[in-house]
Write a structure and sequence with these properties.
heterodimer, A: mainly alpha, MetI-like fold, 12 helices, 0% strand, B: alpha+beta, Rossmann fold, OB fold (Dihydrolipoamide Acetyltransferase, E2P), 2 domains, 6-stranded mixed β-sheet, 5-stranded antiparallel β-sheet, 8 helices, elongated
């Protein structure tokens, strides 16, 4: 009896916390289809009008594609650099390991506004503000720690004997990494990439410093928009931005499901062996 | 033809010379200038307690650990500077180390592909290797779907499929239960006979070492204390440590003068023959001791020692009698179970006797 009560209590608590986290985000969805010309809650009526209006203003699409491009590129770059950093930290032997780790983790600790200001001053000199390259460089810096933390955790769990077995069977260090180590840490790399993508996708502080008429990311344009227009177009664009993130998680979730189903099939279809 | 010359015909066992190999971790000496000649085609076991350096030595031969001095030669060619993936030695790892994301087939084919065997030959060679360990029907499985014994067989197949001239095994049976272990011990011996290559086997289990090996190298804290056949190690241990590590032994400490061994704690003088002239330890194996109730006078070729039975353990085929001498030494005798009751039970005073040649005088430390 007490066990059932404890369980019910825990479920209730989890539901409350879930609602606390999700509700403010979910409120945006009904607001984006409200007929009211202002951002109001509760919504009145139903219309796709605000989504239609997004189509009329090409700057929204430009900002969204810029954001997607920056987020995707910096996620890819973060995975490569973060994985290499994790390999060095977990497997390598070199002096100043502690300080190196601190520097790599610094973007998580240093306030974004300081990073933004510093990068703005530096990039202004060399003409990298308002460029995709500039954005990608900064956002990669912010994404690397997430990849590194994830991949470090994965690497520590990899059985060194697997790599030794691979070498013993004639595979060199590079071949062993791609055939044995990489498959083992791939889930960690993907998780890190997702974090890096999302970090870039909704990063607004540094992006404000970097943005301008030539290149503006979606969060910056939204932030600017809320100050001049208060109609539900913003709610509509927010819904779409949210959709991108939900989509990312869905793709990863589906990937895992497919993987599990395939693994199960390989068992049941086993009959003749070699 | 594979690139590595070690994997080309003729496929006979290779000899391995371990020459003054040294390994130090900080202040600890793991291997103290160990030298060992492993003959082509033999089954050699590196036996020792944990921390004896046996696994370190195997890993140095395999190329996973760099030695701090000395040389390893395979068939006379130094491999010290050859990286692990170019040594062409087969290896079975502790806990098997099968690749979890590959099928059994791909695990076994891995070495063939990396060593550059022709594509057309691979399926046949994999099938043959799996057949050899009776795993031919499970090629499509993942390692996680196999039992411990099956994983061990796959690991064996994977290690020998590319026909190495040496197979290294690092405690391969450690994780299996007793029945399965004994079965696989026999299978590994059969594999050794069939393939004719050199096996180097690492274990801490002295019974396993006695069962399987042509020769055993017993290691203690970085030194080989004895190298010999199982019979030599059991019957003529080189020192007290060897006597105590292999089998069960009754040990008397004392001093030898000519053919007499003075045992101060039991106030006894035992006759001895052979063994170390300046030895300080007299060893008698339990199965060499005879136990009789009451007082008996020893024959001229026998030694005798009075004791009191503390415990009798019935083992089916025979029994062990645990006794305590007047000075408190605990000894154990292993005898056949008598047809009629011989009156030996806890608390009974008995006389232990043994033939003079069954007592062996040993030095405390092995000569190095």
């Amino acid at each position: 009896m007490t066990r059932i009560l404890t369980r019910a209590g825990l479920i209730l608590l989890a539901a409350l916390i879930g609602a606390y986290i999700l509700l403010p985000i979910l409120i945006i969805l009904p607001m984006s289809v409200s007929e009211s010309a202002f951002l109001t809650f509760p919504p009145q009526g139903f219309t796709w009008q605000w989504f239609e209006e997004l189509k009329l203003d090409p700057t929204w699409l430009e900002a969204a594609t810029a954001s997607l491009r920056v987020a995707a590129l910096s996620a890819i770059l973060s995975v490569v650099l973060g994985t290499l950093a994790a390999l060095a930290l977990v497997r390598g032997r070199f002096p100043f390991r502690g300080p190196v780790l601190m520097v790599l983790l610094a973007p998580l600790i240093v306030p974004y506004v300081i990073i933004g200001l510093a990068v703005y001053i530096a990039f202004l000199e060399i003409g990298l503000t308002e460029t995709t390259l500039g954005f990608v460089l900064v956002h990669t810096c912010l994404g690397v720690p997430y990849v590194m933390i994830n991949v470090c955790a994965g690497l520590v769990a990899v059985d060194r004997r697997l790599e030794m077995a691979s070498m013993n069977l004639g595979a060199g260090p590079v071949s062993t990494f791609f055939r044995i180590t990489l498959p083992a840490i791939l889930p960690n790399m993907l998780a890190g990439a997702l974090f890096a993508f999302i970090t870039s996708w909704d990063e607004v502080v540094v992006a404000i410093f970097m943005s301008g008429p030539t290149l503006t990311t979606l969060p910056v344009k939204m932030w600017a928009g809320i100050r001049v227009q208060i109609d539900p177009t913003l709610a509509a664009i927010s819904s779409l931005a949210l959709l991108v993130i939900v989509g990312c998680f869905l793709i990863i979730g589906l990937g895992r499901l497919v993987q599990r189903l395939l693994a199960r099939r390989s068992v049941s279809s086993d009959s003749t062996g070699v | 033809m594979p690139k590595n010359p070690n994997l080309q015909e003729p496929r006979t066992g290779a000899s391995i010379e371990v020459d003054r190999i040294r390994k130090v971790y900080g202040p600890a000496t793991i291997l103290n200038d160990v030298s060992l000649d492993i003959r082509a085609g033999e089954f050699l076991t590196l036996l020792g307690a944990s921390g004896s350096g046996k696994s370190t030595l195997l890993n140095i031969v395999a190329g996973f650990i760099k030695s701090d001095g000395g040389d390893v030669r395979v068939d006379g060619h130094s491999i010290t500077s050859v990286p692990a993936h170019k040594r062409g030695l087969g290896m079975v790892f502790q806990h098997y180390a099968l690749f979890p994301h590959m099928s059994v087939y791909d695990n076994v084919a891995y070495g063939l592909r990396r060593h550059g065997f022709p594509k057309s030959e691979i399926p046949g060679m994999v099938a043959e290797a799996l057949e050899m360990v009776e795993m031919g029907h499970l090629g499509k499985r993942r390692p996680a779907e196999l039992s411990g014994g099956q994983q061990q067989r796959v690991a064996l197949a994977r290690a020998v499929v590319f026909r190495p001239r040496v197979l290294l095994m690092d405690e391969p049976l450690g994780a299996l239960d007793k029945m399965l272990r004994e079965q696989l011990q026999l299978e590994i011996r059969r594999l050794h006979k069939d393939m004719g290559i050199t096996f180097v086997f690492v274990t801490h289990d002295q019974e396993e070492a006695l069962t399987m090996s042509d020769r055993i190298a017993l290691l203690e804290r970085g030194d080989i204390v004895q190298l010999g056949t199982p019979e030599e190690l059991y019957d003529a241990p080189s020192c007290r440590y060897a006597a105590e590590f292999i089998g069960i032994s009754n040990i008397f400490a004392g001093k030898r003068e000519g053919d007499l061994f003075t045992d101060p704690s039991n106030q006894a003088v035992h006759k001895v023959a052979g063994g170390a002239a300046d030895g300080t330890v007299l060893m008698v194996r339990p199965e060499r001791l005879r136990v009789a109730a009451g007082q008996t006078t020893p024959a001229t070729h026998e030694n005798a020692l009075p004791a009191v039975v503390s415990d009798c353990v019935y083992l089916g085929s025979d029994r062990t009698v645990h006794v305590r001498t007047a000075s408190g030494d605990e000894l154990v005798a292993r005898t056949e179970v008598p047809r009629a009751d011989d009156g030996i039970r806890p608390g009974v005073a008995v006389t232990l006797t043994w033939n003079v040649e069954d007592g062996r005088v040993l030095p405390e430390e092995a000569r190095r």
